Amino acid sequence: MSVRRLAPDQVQPTSFAFTAANENWADQQIAKYPEGRQASAVIPLLWKAQEQHDGWVPRAAIETIARKLAMAPMRVMEIATFYTMFNLQPVGEHFIQLCGTTPCALRGAEALKKVCEDVIGPQSTVTADGKLSWLEVECLGACCNAPMAQVNFDYYEDLTPENFRALLDDLRHGRPTKPGPQVERSGSEPLGGGETLKDPALYDGTVIGAGDWQARITEQRKAAAEAAAAKAAAEAAAKAEAEAAAAAQKAGPTDVKAAPAPEAATPARPQPSDAQQPSSRAQDTPSAASDAIKDTPAKAAPPKRAAKPKSEE
Ligand code: FES
């Protein structure tokens, strides 16, 4: 981690002012925050000042921003010196931020530092032609393709002393460069190409679930469609039946009279099978019972007892 100090006085401009367009942009950023919270816009304004001032933040810009946001200049200075995204020294047209954190260090970042020192010079110095400057920074989040460097807004990965030296030469002479991995790999895939998930069947769905899942899904959809059709037909039939019944009821009772009564509605009364046998009619009504008693022959009555002779008494 480099020491974060303002550039020496001899390179500091005497004043700084936003351009009209940037002033307008700054006002829009400030307006995003509630009254009394304008200081929240300090980072966007520092970023815009750096962009306007050839990639670094001079002391005059810090003071201008402090006045605009009604902040103490020291508060703005604290922010500018804390975040490494703000350059406090002049930078080259191509500003190289070389990652020196552990994964990149283990993959050869030390050798890349020597290339920078050899081609550009010490950190935070600009080449005489103004084209290049460099700085060692902490992890830039591309460790999987270590070692790497950021040049302005692009990442260059899988660097070696040879391809890095060639890259610096291309940048210096304005030749086109290819950001990203500098070896034959796409994105962050393993060197030499992917080793897993290579089976095409993984991507056409044929290995999902057991058996022929596509046929199974087709069958399930067909069964669901048939069930829905059967349900709709049953509901239509029930509705038609209900409408017919309602229409019949509306037509009046005469129509009901005209209809012959079904025989089954009046079951036949049971008849006695034998005159000698007690009729079941006797059990139905009192009158029928008395008729049955009358019909019973007299012999059924017990014989009268003869009067006893007086002598026996
Ligand atoms: S360690 Fe270098 S990018 Fe993470």
UniProtKB/TrEMBL annotation:
<protein>
    <submittedName>
        <fullName>NADH-quinone oxidoreductase subunit NuoE</fullName>
        <ecNumber>1.6.5.11</ecNumber>
    </submittedName>
</protein>
<dbReference type="GO" id="GO:0022804">
    <property type="term" value="F:active transmembrane transporter activity"/>
</dbReference>
<keyword id="KW-0520">NAD</keyword>
<dbReference type="GO" id="GO:0098796">
    <property type="term" value="C:membrane protein complex"/>
</dbReference>
<dbReference type="GO" id="GO:0003954">
    <property type="term" value="F:NADH dehydrogenase activity"/>
</dbReference>
<feature type="region of interest" description="Disordered">
    <location>
        <begin position="171"/>
        <end position="200"/>
    </location>
</feature>
<feature type="compositionally biased region" description="Polar residues">
    <location>
        <begin position="273"/>
        <end position="288"/>
    </location>
</feature>
<dbReference type="GO" id="GO:0022890">
    <property type="term" value="F:inorganic cation transmembrane transporter activity"/>
</dbReference>
<dbReference type="InterPro" id="IPR042128">
    <property type="entry name" value="NuoE_dom"/>
</dbReference>
<keyword id="KW-0560">Oxidoreductase</keyword>
<feature type="compositionally biased region" description="Low complexity">
    <location>
        <begin position="258"/>
        <end position="272"/>
    </location>
</feature>
<dbReference type="InterPro" id="IPR041921">
    <property type="entry name" value="NuoE_N"/>
</dbReference>
<dbReference type="GO" id="GO:0031090">
    <property type="term" value="C:organelle membrane"/>
</dbReference>
<dbReference type="GO" id="GO:0031967">
    <property type="term" value="C:organelle envelope"/>
</dbReference>
<keyword id="KW-0411">Iron-sulfur</keyword>
<dbReference type="GO" id="GO:0051537">
    <property type="term" value="F:2 iron, 2 sulfur cluster binding"/>
</dbReference>
<dbReference type="GO" id="GO:0008324">
    <property type="term" value="F:monoatomic cation transmembrane transporter activity"/>
</dbReference>
<dbReference type="GO" id="GO:1902494">
    <property type="term" value="C:catalytic complex"/>
</dbReference>
<comment type="similarity">
    <text>Belongs to the complex I 24 kDa subunit family.</text>
</comment>
<keyword id="KW-0479">Metal-binding</keyword>
<feature type="region of interest" description="Disordered">
    <location>
        <begin position="240"/>
        <end position="313"/>
    </location>
</feature>
<dbReference type="Pfam" id="PF01257">
    <property type="entry name" value="2Fe-2S_thioredx"/>
</dbReference>
<keyword id="KW-1278">Translocase</keyword>
<keyword id="KW-0001">2Fe-2S</keyword>
<keyword id="KW-0408">Iron</keyword>
<dbReference type="GO" id="GO:0098662">
    <property type="term" value="P:inorganic cation transmembrane transport"/>
</dbReference>
<feature type="compositionally biased region" description="Low complexity">
    <location>
        <begin position="240"/>
        <end position="251"/>
    </location>
</feature>
<dbReference type="InterPro" id="IPR036249">
    <property type="entry name" value="Thioredoxin-like_sf"/>
</dbReference>
<dbReference type="GO" id="GO:0046872">
    <property type="term" value="F:metal ion binding"/>
</dbReference>
<dbReference type="InterPro" id="IPR002023">
    <property type="entry name" value="NuoE-like"/>
</dbReference>
